[in-house]
Amino acid sequence: MGPTGLLVYISVLLAFFSATQAYNVTRLLGQYPEFGLLNQYINDSGLAGEINRRGTVTILAVDNSTLSSISGRSKDSIKAIVSTHVILDYYDEKKLMNIKNDSTTLTTLFQSSGIANDNQGHILAYNAGGGHFYFGSAVKGASLNAQFVKTVVTQPYNISVLQVSQPIIPPGIDAQSPWPAPGARTAFPPKKHDGSSDTPAAESPSNDDDSAAADAPSDDVASSPSPSSAPATAPGPADKSAAADEDSGSDSSSSSSLTRVKMGLVGTVMALASLLVAL
Ligand SMILES: *[C@@H]1O[C@H](CO)[C@@H](O)[C@H](O)[C@H]1NC(C)=O
Ligand SMILES: *[C@@H]1O[C@H](CO)[C@@H](O)[C@H](O)[C@H]1NC(C)=O
Ligand SMILES: *[C@@H]1O[C@H](CO)[C@@H](O)[C@H](O)[C@H]1NC(C)=O
Ligand SMILES: *[C@@H]1O[C@H](CO)[C@@H](O)[C@H](O)[C@H]1NC(C)=O
Ligand SMILES: *[C@@H]1O[C@H](CO)[C@@H](O)[C@H](O)[C@H]1NC(C)=O
């Protein structure tokens, strides 16, 4: 292959990769030093590649000073928390304002780990009106105390980064099984149905949130719309609802990655056509 052929070959590769990766989350967050710790956690936990592959995400970003409150936790716990901050859908302020019936359940990257119990892999978004939004774990009894601060950056409809006031920590994650080894994610881990507790008291919503939540909706207000509007919290076989949500989550993401693969193929075909012209 001559130098021209090599150049064309390289441009084929470039066309393919630029079409398949919509963004690089590490590079994107790297432009905002105040989220450096979050970026470090995303990279160090190996979540960056998965976030990039998703193609359509919203990251609820917590700044250095606030996120440092979780720095003493285990690696698995930090990974679970960080992945709870990655919504598998695109949300900007406009779309948050369209949330009907005040609150809506969103699937996060933690759900796709296969180790999230109950509603740990989901969060609720609450539209309080007037541009005020609150987020919190969808686990029953958790409070919606992560308040929307501002839009950091949006690249519609690939990735959106929204700053929130504090980390969302799903109750019970410290009792979680370890994360499966990369590539080993095939089935849900066995779950106990003998009533043994998945949610130790250690992580129950604590009172130290009360001061921060002074101007946030009270737990009553925040959680009252959710039981009716969030079917996933309805009593029922936890495994089934979790599995169903996982399915729907991966359906939409696999369709978006399918789109990207198609676009990659189009890029490749076009590059091959230019190769023929060049020869
Ligand atoms: C979103 O990603 C696609 C490729 O997957 C790209 O063509 C498009 O320009 C991206 N949009 C933005 C706003 O970056
Ligand atoms: C994403 O960006 C980071 C920082 O610029 C870089 O180190 C990494 O290689 C990039 N990843 C991909 C898949 O391009
Ligand atoms: C945030 O934390 C990261 C990692 O610890 C650090 O590299 C960065 O400089 C910090 N940014 C600010 C604004 O303090
Ligand atoms: C990302 O993590 C890898 C190890 O997993 C490390 O070698 C690399 O320096 C990290 N990059 C950044 C930008 O933190
Ligand atoms: C709002 O909730 C009520 C009762 O759950 C339901 O009947 C109605 O269809 C919902 N409206 C929208 C727009 O989702």
UniProtKB/TrEMBL annotation:
Q: Where is the signal peptide?
A: 1-22
Compartment(s) of residence: Cell membrane
Q: Domain (FAS1): give its ranges.
A: 22-168
Q: Which key words are in the record? A: Cell membrane, Glycoprotein, GPI-anchor, Lipoprotein, Membrane, Proteoglycan, Signal
What coarse category fits the chief subcellular location reported for this protein? membrane
**KW Transmembrane (keyword) present:** no
One GO cellular component term of this record is: side of membrane
Q: Which SUPFAM superfamilies match?
A: FAS1 domain
Membrane topology, as annotated: Lipid-anchor; GPI-anchor
Q: Where is this region: Disordered?
A: 173-261
Biased region (Low complexity) positions are 213-241
Assigned protein family: Belongs to the fasciclin-like AGP family.
Q: Which PANTHER family match?
A: FASCICLIN-LIKE ARABINOGALACTAN PROTEIN, FASCICLIN-LIKE ARABINOGALACTAN PROTEIN 14
Role of this protein: May be a cell surface adhesion protein.
| Name by which UniProt lists this protein | FAS1 domain-containing protein
Source species of the chain = Acacia crassicarpa (northern wattle)
